Amino acid sequence: MAVHTSQSVAKAAGDDVARGPSRGAGTTPGPFRRALSTHWYAWTMVAPVVAVIGVIIGYPLFRGIYLSMTDANERNVERSIGVNHMPATYEFVGLDNYADALTGDQFLGTLGWTLVWTVSCVSVTFLLGLGLANILNRRIAGRSVYRLMLILPWAIPGFVSVFAWRFLYNEDRGFLNRILAGGGIDAVPWLNDPTMAKISVIAVNVWLGVPFMMVALLGGLQSIDSAQYEAAEMDGANAWQRFRHITLPGLRPVSATVILLSTIWTFNMFPVIFLLTRGGPGEATQILVTQAFKFSFEISPRDFAQSSTWGVLILVLLMLFAAVYRRVLRKQGDVW
Amino acid sequence: MRRGITATALVATLALAATACGGDSGETGDKKASGKLSGTVTWWDTSTVGSEDKVFKKLAEGFEKKHPGVDVKYVNVPFGEAQNKFKNAAQSGSGAPDVIRSEVAWTPEFADLGYLAPLDGTAALKDGKDFLAQAAASTKYQGKTYAVPQVIDSMGLFYNEKIFKDAGVEVPKTIAELKTVSKKIKDKTGKTGLYLRGDDAYWFLSFLYGEGGDLVDAKSKSVTVDQEPGVKALKVVKDLVDSGAAKTDATDGWENMQSAFKDGKVAMMINGPWAVADTFAGKEFKDKANLGITTVPAGSKSQGAPQGGHNLAVYAGSKNLDASYAFSEYMTSAESQALVAKELSLLPTRTSVYSQPGVSDNQIVGFFKPVVDKAVERPWIPETGSLFAPLVTEYTKVLTGQTAPEKGAKATGDQYRKLLKGWK
């Protein structure tokens, strides 16, 4: 145990040196030792956290990356069941899985729909959230009641509301089609038709995502100085001009963050797709994460290698997105 | 001094954390001391909730009366989830049951993965010669027996006698007749003819057999699903849906099928004995005579339904193997099978049970026995259970018009060849 902690301390302190090249450190052991002797207490205190994070995040991550470079599946991984013991027989195959994923049409096809899904969910959610936040930012009667009701979807556990939607969408017995039947309209195949299923899953995700957008943007709106609006009014700016030149720029720090978060969440929004359609009909609504889950848990023999490959590719894509997004924002003058 | 305190505190914290982590080693399996069975046997049943499960639960708990030292834990796992749940639990080594009701196609797969205990020479197998050869076939893998047959089944066409009478139609014998019958039913009563499950490819098999096709041919090690009959069968089901003779769903197929048929919204469905108890619970079938069953409609080449069924298999990592063997024997004994056949109309796997009173005069058992005798036997290879996942994706795509039958059959065949290394 003692050995373990001291290692962590040394490693963590090493990080410190690496992060501070501007101080001229790195070549001589002086700053390292000085850092160790001044901050040893802090590093000791941090060590357990570093160790725990290393175990719960680092290990699965590196294991996943390793598996993605093998041909591991259910039939060749190590298993020990009672008296039966089967050693691992999978082999290292290098980057073959990545080559297969990136040249085949399944990954790219799924990625295409995942992008459509993410962009439409985030944009619709953002616009609706912005609209609602603006409405609820005015003094209207029963404002707190409205605010409370609009937050409701957020207060219900996600899987519960998704199941509720699944019942609503049922083609024969669902509530939505009963209402339509009352108006003499034919039943809509909400989840049975590929195009309708796509629209239906997006609608559910928007419904789930609006409260977060609304609350975050409402907070942003309230932090805008009302003196600016008064000044603009004095100068004769109309409502649209005030919205365009005060509200939108004032919301930028908030909206930049919520759009980034919302994009990452939606890209990986497993429960909505999985619980509503399981990626169906066929593969019409399959996004990258649900397909990766399918490889690893639904098909047999379970393909752990391919599933890990898709997982790593998802991580890389999101990291790229975050990097580009940050750079664009920084160019426009936001520091964040 | 300060250093000393920190170190002690750290060690103490870590020690606490370590003990907290290692707290779940209490297992219930006790070895028998003197030939008497004891401990807990957890059984995962996959029967239909609300009808079949009550009978099986009562039967399973009857084991406790015979062996008072044993505690039977009955767990009902939905059939659609059981295969994956068992694999998760079996591989991780925690949470797996001692005994699982394993569908015939799962059994060779579980055995191949090393999850099942071989049963030859154990108390689980008694009067092995009494089992129907068809039922016993799926329990064998590489010369060993890995399960005990519990029930055997096949599929038939269930129909609503009243709707047929109202529409003035005869029971269809072929798919062509089924189409005309459905049209008449629609014209006369406004109801849909057939409910076709679109989210489970098992329901597609009888159409495939009807066109003279099969998924694979294990004898010549070749994939056959993408040949002419496979394409034709996909065209047939697509045509049934497009022409309005049948309705289908891409999700919740089982619930939608059962409720549509039970409420008299559709006149026919293809189903097996496992659906009988649940169907009788429906308001249309309070009078049991209203339910008619006939053979599945023939295609252009032949007529056939898949042979299915369930086995009881013992988890190799069970802490209580002896009681699990005895439990599997008890559940598949002639006595238990007779009770299940009487109460649920499920078909026994023991020859001797068919002549027992209460079974021999059960109409549904009497109908399905000849169907099972003629049913199409699938190859009992580990991959048999894996053939449905690729097929159902393409099957649903064809039904919802996302891909053409030719392309769907070809995509399925390509996936099969990836799965079955070295097959043609």
TrEMBL record, chain A:
<dbReference type="Pfam" id="PF00528">
    <property type="entry name" value="BPD_transp_1"/>
</dbReference>
<feature type="transmembrane region" description="Helical">
    <location>
        <begin position="254"/>
        <end position="276"/>
    </location>
</feature>
<feature type="transmembrane region" description="Helical">
    <location>
        <begin position="199"/>
        <end position="221"/>
    </location>
</feature>
<keyword id="KW-0812">Transmembrane</keyword>
<feature type="domain" description="ABC transmembrane type-1">
    <location>
        <begin position="111"/>
        <end position="325"/>
    </location>
</feature>
<feature type="transmembrane region" description="Helical">
    <location>
        <begin position="115"/>
        <end position="136"/>
    </location>
</feature>
<dbReference type="InterPro" id="IPR050809">
    <property type="entry name" value="UgpAE/MalFG_permease"/>
</dbReference>
<feature type="transmembrane region" description="Helical">
    <location>
        <begin position="148"/>
        <end position="168"/>
    </location>
</feature>
<feature type="transmembrane region" description="Helical">
    <location>
        <begin position="304"/>
        <end position="325"/>
    </location>
</feature>
<feature type="transmembrane region" description="Helical">
    <location>
        <begin position="40"/>
        <end position="62"/>
    </location>
</feature>
<protein>
    <submittedName>
        <fullName>ABC transporter permease</fullName>
    </submittedName>
</protein>
<dbReference type="InterPro" id="IPR035906">
    <property type="entry name" value="MetI-like_sf"/>
</dbReference>
<dbReference type="InterPro" id="IPR000515">
    <property type="entry name" value="MetI-like"/>
</dbReference>
<keyword id="KW-1133">Transmembrane helix</keyword>
<keyword id="KW-1003">Cell membrane</keyword>
<keyword id="KW-0472">Membrane</keyword>
<keyword id="KW-0813">Transport</keyword>
<comment type="similarity">
    <text>Belongs to the binding-protein-dependent transport system permease family.</text>
</comment>
<feature type="region of interest" description="Disordered">
    <location>
        <begin position="1"/>
        <end position="30"/>
    </location>
</feature>
From TrEMBL, chain B:
<protein>
    <submittedName>
        <fullName>Sugar ABC transporter substrate-binding protein</fullName>
    </submittedName>
</protein>
<feature type="signal peptide">
    <location>
        <begin position="1"/>
        <end position="20"/>
    </location>
</feature>
<dbReference type="Pfam" id="PF01547">
    <property type="entry name" value="SBP_bac_1"/>
</dbReference>
<keyword id="KW-0732">Signal</keyword>
<dbReference type="InterPro" id="IPR006059">
    <property type="entry name" value="SBP"/>
</dbReference>
<keyword id="KW-0813">Transport</keyword>
<comment type="similarity">
    <text>Belongs to the bacterial solute-binding protein 1 family.</text>
</comment>
